[in-house]
Design goal:
The complex is a heterodimer.
Chain A: H1 4-15, H2 26-53, H3 59-94, H4 100-103, H5 108-126, E1 147-152, E2 157-160, E3 166-169, E4 174-178, H6 179-187, E5 191-193
Antiparallel strand pairs in A: 1-4, 1-5, 2-3
Helix pairs in contact in A: 1-2, 1-3, 2-3, 3-5
Chain B: H1 16-21, E1 25-30, E2 54-58, H2 59-65, E3 73-75, H3 83-91, H4 98-101, H5 105-111, H6 120-144, H7 151-154, H8 159-179, H9 190-204
Antiparallel strand pairs in B: 1-2, 1-3
Helix pairs in contact in B: 5-6, 6-8
The chains are: A mainly alpha, B mainly alpha.
Chain lengths: 196, 205
């Protein structure tokens, strides 16, 4: 049957639950595009034959292939679009710099798109809240206090806070830090929020 | 947030769930000849798919080829929507394992209404009554299974019911967190955590 490769792409995305990004399946996409090219050419020659020789019994076959073309188109569009949504979510989860392993799963065009998205978001955030701008990826949950207690889950090196103090984020050390400074590190799993 | 599936008879173009739903196979009978496509039908060696061939087609293809005015193909009902099974669903909808029979029992049932089948009103009624009959139990389970293994509860659910169950569970968990005063607790993103889990399993390989 036609369109088996295309549905395989969709299954692959669906299997990766929770918005994780699987490696870009360039080979799968290429195979679907090839199938589409073949279907289109067969249809072209059948359409010409049906027109010039008046063979209207070919029409059901032409329609059959046409449906398959549409199906492949839908699957590819949905594959790419779903990936874009996942990539967009990454900006909010990981911040503007992605881990290499994840960047490795994206194709060149997706990386380009991510950079453009980052820029648009940054421009927008600069335009908010007067001179300094406003980071809208912060404080997704309303804060209860300005400072919070955090524990380091892995060695992260030196870290500078607003007043210029430099602290060393060493594994298992505990600190009392401004919330807005560590929110991102908590989301990345480097710090752990300790509630006493 | 992924693209949600469509509601009722409508499909959502970009929804992965709807694409997988429209991959479900339906028993069909061709009412016309499809020249030069014989290679798709393994049962005979002819060049064409002749008229009155019984074959299984995915829903998307049946939907694309089906026409009200001209007879191109007729769609037969899958087993679970026929009268025999409808009586079973009527008797007690809560005992059937919809995941094994579907897993898109409701979705496919709604999609079948596109084809002018004389039993359409009964199918619509059966699908609706099944949902009503099972919903209470699904909701109950999702609101009360806290900190428990839910796999046995989820197993017999249709994909629509699973989605509802998940929403109910996340609501329950959020409420419990709020009651314990942990709503403002910051935690690592589930994406990051899952990603790390996968890396550890990679190491074991």
């Amino acid at each position: 049957m036609f369109c088996e490769k295309a549905i395989e792409l969709i299954r692959e995305l669906q299997r990766m639950g929770d918005g994780q990004l699987p490696a870009f399946n360039e080979d799968g996409i290429r195979q679907v595009l090839e199938e589409m090219k073949a279907l289109y050419q067969q249809n072209q020659s059948d359409v010409n034959e049906a027109k010039s020789e008046g063979r209207s019994e070919l029409i059901p076959t032409i329609k059959f292939r046409h449906c398959c073309l549409f199906r492949n188109q839908r699957c590819i569009a949905a594959y790419l679009y779903d990936r874009l949504l996942r990539i967009r979510a990454l900006r909010w989860e990981y911040g503007s710099v992605l881990p290499t392993a994840i960047r490795f799963h994206m194709c060149a065009e997706e990386l380009e798109w991510f950079n453009q998205y980052k820029k648009s978001l940054a421009t927008y955030m600069r335009s908010l809240g007067g001179e300094e701008g406003l980071d809208i990826t912060q404080d997704v949950k309303p804060p209860k206090s300005l400072y919070i207690e955090v524990r380091c889950l892995k060695d992260h090196g030196e870290f500078e806070i607003d007043d210029g103090t430099v602290i060393l984020l060493k594994k298992n050390s505990q600190h009392f830090l401004p919330r807005w400074k560590c929110e991102q590190l908590i989301r990345q799993g480097i710090l752990e929020h300790v509630v006493s | 947030m992924p693209v949600p599936p469509g509601v009722g008879k409508e499909e959502n173009f970009f929804s992965l769930d709807d694409i997988l739903l429209s991959q479900e196979r339906l028993p069909c009978r061709t009412d016309t000849t499809f020249p030069r496509l014989g290679f798709l039908e393994k049962s005979n060696d002819s060049r064409d798919i002749p008229e009155a061939t019984k074959m299984e087609m995915p829903l998307w293809l049946a939907k694309g080829l089906y026409e009200r005015k001209r007879r191109v193909l007729s769609v037969e009902l899958p087993k679970v929507y026929r009268e025999g099974w409808r009586t079973v669903f009527n008797a007690d909808p809560t005992v059937v394992d919809l995941h094994k029979m579907g897993p898109y029992y409701y979705g496919l049932g709604s999609q079948l209404l596109h084809f002018q089948h004389p039993e359409n009103p009964e199918i619509a009624q059966a699908v609706l009554q099944t949902f009503i009959g099972r919903f209470r139990r699904t909701m109950d389970a999702s609101q009360n299974a806290y900190n428990k293994d839910t796999s046995a509860l989820v197993e017999p659910l249709d994909s629509l019911e699973r989605a509802l169950f998940k929403v109910g569970q996340s609501g329950l968990n959020a409420f419990q967190r709020w009651e314990m005063g942990q709503a403002s607790h910051l935690s690592a993103s589930s994406l990051v955590l899952n990603y790390r889990k996968r890396k550890i399993t990679d190491l074991h390989d």
